[in-house]
Automatic annotation (TrEMBL):
Residues 187-243 form the HAMP domain. Its EC number is 2.7.13.3. Residues 348-579 form the Histidine kinase domain. SMART domains: HAMP (SM00304), HATPase_c (SM00387). Residues 231-339 form a coiled coil. GO terms for molecular function: protein histidine kinase activity. It catalyses: ATP + protein L-histidine = ADP + protein N-phospho-L-histidine. This is histidine kinase. GO terms for cellular component: membrane. InterPro entries: HAMP_dom (IPR003660), HATPase_C_sf (IPR036890), HATPase_dom (IPR003594), His_kinase_dom (IPR005467), Sig_transdc_His_kin-like_C (IPR004358). It holds the Pfam family HATPase_c.
């Protein structure tokens, strides 16, 4: 086997470690430079939000698509921007320029509510998404969002010179250290070791008396000098051990004779004890056979229990799969119930808005006709002061009618829009509870307006809370509709009372109606999924179940109910005033 030089081996290991360390450090510096540059580009994209969001928001609000396209082209001309996607308030893409990725897979049609960093994709693209908020009359409305894209190529182009400098610096330092190490190892290790090795090879083991090796050039190295001294000491010890070995051999001959005598005595003792061990072995053999029989029966019992355990596990797996399917089915039914409620809300609001809009159209036609009559009289020079006064009075009355009905339609649409958004969103925001409850009641007005039922709300005017507004809307909608459909089924005039109290950091809500109430059996199953007293009329039985889950899980509160036949239904709801977002 070919032997390798110690100095060469040591030099190879040292340089290998240095090469690996240099390579890792260089890669780390390049990586740090890359991520610092990428973070800086991300900050540039975030800065563009403050620069362009105002003009782009106004363009979308005013439906000025051409101006939005011009602004998007201007953003694409910025060196750090390689692509742009602009969406309106419905999540529809207005324009997408340059390189981009499909953000519908990430956000769907839902708009982002705050600035979000888009992680780097396999294509090398990364970006920043921010909302477009338009403030009008003290009310903030999101009109869309914008996603700006940059890429790995832009980052690499910015750090290209730094990468070349780091690689050149590493290569220069490596070349210098290789030359320095070669010279040092040859001068201080290879040549002195060669001299010592040659002297050691020239030694004869049979003639060690007075033999020793000289340090020579190894005197320049402390370690090699110590090794020379240690080797000379070893030679002296070998000489001493050689003399001791000869004396020990003589003693060993004497000991062998005594050992032969002891072996004869031991053989006799072994023969005597062997007979006793034979009898013990026979007894052990019988016990072994008995244990094997018991072991076989135990294996059969273990195998039988293993089959039973396997069957039980299969049954457990089937039951778990069945439970998962039931949970998924229940979640889908809950979502369908929410969308059905929202659909009913849309239909009711649409019908309610038709009335003021129809009055507005009629008033507008009437006013146009009067203006034509006035214009004709003016052109024919038959206009009299009385006719002008009559026109001014009719125009004032018509505009007043238009203003009141348009305000009514605007209030209905604003209430519906906020309630509809809240019912399909779980976003946490701060609301004034009294105003919000009135908006929910206003959105349900189409269902109550044909009845004589009354809804009384007693809530502090300055009570604010931070929570998922959609949960509050869904809870009061379910309770009000349950009272209308189930509680007042056989009543012409019912009364609903909503009382809200502030108790420290908690909100205490008392909801009651004077409807027909529930029996003890119905009350016990009220919050069970799919329980309804209107199954034949198409009731799903999910309203109270959804309400229970919203109070307990979403609002982290508690809900209690009490009722007796003929004495109405009473809910007691309590939850924290502030919920962490």
């Amino acid at each position: 086997m070919q032997q390798r030089s110690l100095s060469r081996t040591l030099l190879t290991k040292v340089l290998s470690v240095y090469f690996i360390l240099t390579f890792v450090v260089t890669l780390a510096q390049i990586g740090a430079e890359y991520f610092n540059t990428k973070r800086y580009i991300n900050s540039e994209l975030a800065t563009l939000q403050q620069t362009f969001s105002g003009s782009l928001t106004r363009a979308i609000w005013e439906l000025n698509t051409q101006q939005a396209l011009v602004i998007a082209d201007g953003l694409l001309a910025i060196p750090a921007v390689e692509g742009i996607i602009v969406r309106d308030d419905s999540g529809t893409v207005i324009t997408q320029l340059g390189r981009h990725v499909d953000i519908s897979q990430r956000h769907g049609s839902e708009l982002v509510r705050e600035g979000i960093q888009l992680a780097e994709q396999q294509s090398g693209l990364f970006g920043y998404t921010f909302p477009l908020i338009f403030e009008f009359s003290g009310r903030a409305t999101q009109v869309g969002d914008v996603t700006l894209f940059s890429s790995r190529a832009i980052v690499i182009d910015r750090i290209k010179i730094g990468i070349f400098f780091l690689i050149g610096n590493a290569m220069l330092k490596t070349t210098f250290l290789i030359i320095l190490f070669l010279f040092a190892f040859r001068r201080y290790l290879t040549e002195p070791l060669g001299e010592l090795t040659q002297q050691i090879e020239d030694l004869e083991l049979d003639h060690l008396e007075g033999t020793r090796i000289e340090a020579g050039r190894a005197q320049n190295s402390v370690e090699l000098g110590v090794m020379t001294t240690a080797f000379n000491r070893l030679i002296r010890r070998v000489q001493d051990y050689k003399a001791e070995l000869e004396s020990t051999q003589k003693e060993l001959l004497v000991s062998n004779e005594k050992l032969d005598q002891h072996n004869l005595v031991l053989e006799q003792e072994v023969a005597r004890k062997t007979s006793g061990l034979s009898q013990a072995m026979m007894d052990l053999q019988q016990q072994k056979q008995q244990l094997e029989v018991k072991q076989q029966s135990l294996k059969e019992e273990i195998e039988r229990r293993r089959h039973i355990e396997h069957a039980l596990r299969n049954k457990q797996t089937e039951l778990e799969n069945l439970v998962d399917d039931l949970k998924q089915t229940q979640d889908r039914l809950v979502q369908s119930e929410k969308m059905a409620a929202l659909g009913g809300l849309v239909a009711g609001i649409t019908h309610e808005v038709n009335t003021p809009v129809g009055i507005g159209v009629t008033a507008t036609s009437f006013l146009a006709e009067k203006i034509q009559t006035l214009q004709k009289a003016y052109q024919e020079k038959t206009l009299s002061p009385k006719n002008l006064e009559q026109f001014i009075a009719e125009a004032s009355e018509t505009t007043s009618l238009l203003e009141s009905n348009l305000n009514r339609a605007s209030d209905l649409i604003a209430s519906f829009k906020q309630i509809a958004v809240d019912q399909t969103s779980e976003a946490i925001r701060t609301i004034r509870l009294d105003t919000y409850i009135q908006e929910v009641i206003r959105s349900l007005h189409p269902h109550f307006k044909k009845t004589k039922h009354q809804v009384d709300v007693n809530c502090p005017a300055d009570l604010q809370l931070t929570c998922p507004a959609g949960a509050i809307s869904q809870i009061f909608t379910n309770l009000l509709m349950n009272s209308l459909i189930h509680g007042f089924e056989e009543q012409e005039q019912g009364h609903i009372r909503i009382t809200v109290l502030e108790d420290g950091d908690d909100i205490d809500i008392r909801f009651s109606d004077d409807g027909k109430g529930l029996t003890a059996d119905q009350l016990e199953r009220l919050f069970h999924p799919f329980f309804t007293t209107k199954r034949e009329a198409g009731g799903s039985g999910l309203g109270t179940h959804i309400t229970y889950n919203l109070v307990r899980q979403t609002l982290k509160g508690s809900i209690e109910v009490s009722s007796e036949p003929g004495k109405g239904l009473h809910y007691h709801i309590r939850f924290p005033k502030q919920l962490a977002s």
